[in-house]
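This part of the workshop introduces the protein records we will be handling. Getting from the letters to the tokens is the skill we practise here. The record below serves as our worked example for the rest of this section.

…
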Amino acid sequence: MPSLATREQQLAWAAVMRSEFASLRAADESGIPTLLDTYGAKDPAEFFAVSVEAFFELPRALRARYPKLYEQLRNYFQQDPVEYSAETIDR
């Protein structure tokens, strides 16, 4: 978990990451296609890596499909890549 300013931010981060990681693992196990690379289902560190990749490369699609995850990453990186992304199609 990154260093966050408040306990409330830490709890929100942990809850969202835990939930989304579990969802990705379930999708991977059942063969359900996802926006996130299923390599992220390997462990929490890889989940973070593929989430960050999607945040910067496919921000509109990530925001549409995983709004809570997008919001946590937006707050953490203190930027909104939707504002400057070249992404044109929501996937």
Summary: The chain has a mean pLDDT of 92. The chain is about 60% helix and 0% strand. Residues 7-82 form a domain with the Collagenase (Catalytic Domain) fold (CATH 3.40.390.10).
